[in-house]
UniProtKB/TrEMBL annotation:
Subcellular location: Cell outer membrane
Record-stated family: Belongs to the MipA/OmpV family.
Species of provenance: Microvirga tunisiensis
Main location: membrane
Protein name: MipA/OmpV family protein
Lineage of origin: Bacteria, Pseudomonadati, Pseudomonadota, Alphaproteobacteria, Hyphomicrobiales
Pfam families in UniProt: MipA
């Protein structure tokens, strides 16, 4: 395992609204009591995952994040692999809005066997999301995003989470499905004839878009108090289709993409 540390400041502004009583089991048991203003939540996030899509080696990333909600409202459930999002609609069953993700780059120092393959810079992926709670304990979420800088393709992520509270604990688990278009798959999994000639260990490969991975995410959170909480999680993606058949994955990487992480949250009231 190779570890590379990086630091990014990611902020998300989340608007709060009154949550229907029937959906209360999905969220924190009690909001921080404050008659006016905002509740600010500061998070410290630590994650370990593949160095780049398809890699069998790992990188470490630590970053802070920040969110806001109206005072007197409870914090809505979010899965640890959700993109950072801002909702235009807060409802007990439906939410939608804008979302963004950060994707790390692929560099020669990640794996010396990548010699001859073009480096891929980091990318940002802004887009839109929608989520729906068909049952009190079940959430469906979809994100569609477009890459900039490292890749210029379109990607989509779909997930389903079963969520249940047990006292101070909240447990969630559910399947995941990821798609990418031709531009995305050719950026991360394709090999040009020139790259193949320089590298000498892989053959030219031109993948097509489609389903890139299937998997699951599980998490467990513990509320130490109204202010403090901790979340531990694990994610698993199994590359499929043209992504899995890439000579980069077969020769230098793995179809099995595993990630783990820990988040510590602190919430406090703020009145401007």
């Amino acid at each position: 395992m190779r570890a590379a540390s990086s630091l990014a400041v990611l902020t998300a502004l989340l608007a709060g609204s009154t949550v229907a009583q029937a959906a209360d089991p999905l969220f924190a048991p009690e909001p921080i009591q404050d008659s006016s203003g905002w509740i600010v939540t500061v998070k410290g996030n630590l994650r370990v995952g593949p160095s780049y899509p398809g890699s069998d080696e790992f990188s470490f990333i630590g970053y802070p994040s920040l969110s806001f909600r109206r005072a007197g409202t409870v914090e809505r459930f979010s899965a640890p692999d959700d993109g950072l999002s801002f909702s235009f609609l807060e409802d007990s069953a439906v939410r939608f809005g804008v979302v963004g993700r950060f994707v790390g780059g692929r560099y020669l120092q990640d794996n010396r066997e990548l010699f001859g393959l073009e480096k891929i810079d980091w990318a940002v992926e802004p887009g839109v999301f929608v989520e729906y709670w068909p049952l009190e304990f079940l959430r469906a979420r979809a994100e569609i995003r477009r890459g900039f800088n490292g890749h210029e393709g379109f990607v989509a992520d779909f997930g389903l989470d079963a969520v249940q509270r047990f006292g101070a604990f909240t447990v969630s688990i559910g399947p995941r499905l990821a798609l990418g278009d031709n531009e995305f798959t050719r950026t991360y999994f394709g090999v040009t004839p020139a790259e193949a000639a320089l590298n000498g260990q892989v053959t030219p490969y031109r993948p097509s878009g489609g389903i890139t991975s299937v998997g699951a995410t599980g998490a467990i959170s513990y509320d130490w108090s109204q202010q403090w909480s901790t979340t531990a999680f694990v994610t698993y993606k199994h590359l499929v289709g043209d992504a899995a058949d890439s000579p980069i994955v077969e020769r230098f990487g793995s179809e099995h993409q595993v990630g783990v992480g820990l988040t510590v949250s602190y919430s406090f009231g703020y009145t401007p």
